[in-house]
Specification:
- By secondary structure, the chain is an alpha+beta fold.
- The strands form two sheets. The protein has a two-stranded antiparallel sheet with strand order 1-2. Strands 3-4 form a two-stranded parallel ribbon.
- A hairpin with a 2-residue loop joins β1 and β2.
- α1 runs antiparallel to α2.
- The radius of gyration is 14 Å and the shape is globular.
Length: about 120
């Protein structure tokens, strides 16, 4: 669940510059889909983790979100989305209706919402 929207731009570890560094690292790791990278850049990951972990939000690591769950590391989110958009034929395509099972904190659903026509997401907890 996203927190106070007034904290979107942030300073220090939550700044736009920090998000740029994350995108650069994802490029270095082989993520090539510019649409996916732009969506990762535009969704402020620090708003989806506990405030005590905000300084680590842009590291490429999974972080605890409670109930024994974690927010997936950014590379995994980017890679899954890249594969969903490109499939086996390598052609980037818009996503239509997407079902996400295991919403967690909502980060991936928020990124997906910028790439798909419709996102339906559910969480058991």
């Amino acid at each position: 669940m996203m927190k106070d929207p007034s904290r979107v731009s942030g300073i220090g570890m939550t700044s736009a510059r920090t998000r740029e560094r994350l995108v650069a690292r994802l490029r270095e790791q082989g993520i090539t889909d510019n649409e996916v990278l732009e969506r990762i850049r535009s969704v402020p990951r620090h708003l989806f983790v506990d405030q005590a972990l905000e300084s680590r939000a842009y590291e490429d690591t999974a972080l605890p979100i409670g109930f024994g769950q974690t927010i997936s590391n950014p590379y995994i989110v980017a890679r899954m989305l890249e594969l969903a958009r490109h499939g086996e034929n390598g052609q980037g395509r818009p996503l239509g209706r997407v079902l996400e099972v295991g919403l967690g904190c909502g980060y991936q659903a928020s990124v997906l919402a910028k790439l798909a026509r419709e996102v339906v997401s559910m969480e058991r907890i």
